[in-house]
Amino acid sequence: MKKVGFTLIELLVVIAIIAILAAILFPVFAQAREKARSITCISNQKQIGLAILQYVQDYDEDFPFANQIATGVEVRWYDMVQPYVKNGSLSNSIENNTSGHYKGIDGVWHCPDFPSDQDAEYGVHEYIFPGWNPGSGLSSGLAGPVTNDSEINSPGDQIIVAEKGQMDGNSSWPFFNANEWWWTNTAIGTPQYDYSVNPQQAPWYPTSNHNCDQAATSNTPNWGADYGNCGNSIRYRHQNACNVLFSDGHVKAMHEGNIKFATNIFDQQVYAAQVPAIGGPFSLY
Known about the structure:
By secondary structure, this protein is an alpha/beta fold. β7 and β8 (251-255) form a beta hairpin. The chain has helices at 8-58, 77-85, 180-183, 261-265, 268-278, and strands spanning 67-70, 73-76, 122-125, 131-132, 159-163, 175-176, 241-246, 251-255.
């Protein structure tokens, strides 16, 4: 009786078909996994946004400081909204005596795509959430006055929390950089526009010239994780998109180049109140 089996050609054809299907499906699976991670990150920011809004309601519509440093102890905004989040881990860092305080570690404070377990992966807008440091040498002790929710001109457009880049070491900034020169080409020369006069006239340049996760995009040089300002740079790590929280509480993934300084970062009333308190021109050039 003649045995029936596969010929070598048939086996090779089957293997080739499987290889082709794998080549097609693996990128799809990778995209699906990345989408799930991005959704988790969006969920994190949604919970953080609800916590901030509850804090604002309880404190006369005032936003918290990004951080406070008094008597050598630093308390960050993560600690201030913790009662409304009830998530994350306490810090054991001796830096600024933050041990026993919340610094944005684990739980909703950790993005699945962040390349490490660094603290402060999410940062607040540095002008809407100013810092307070009596030891800074400023006569008032304030880097800027507390921002009231009524000062936000366009809550649906104003970004207040965003993902940040990885920073060398185990600590990072609690805010993201909101200076004009960081978002426009004024960083390389004399400012071309005075936003206090006309904030809508701006040369739109995304904050993409600093890449802090050692994964440079085609138009982004790789600065590496040891670049000093990585910890306050917005980072586009979700398929070239960054998840951001707006002042009205909604969260959105925004692709590189779509975040506009005058629309999403700058607020004339807030900046007019903050920058003079810091001591300097209207925008820090």
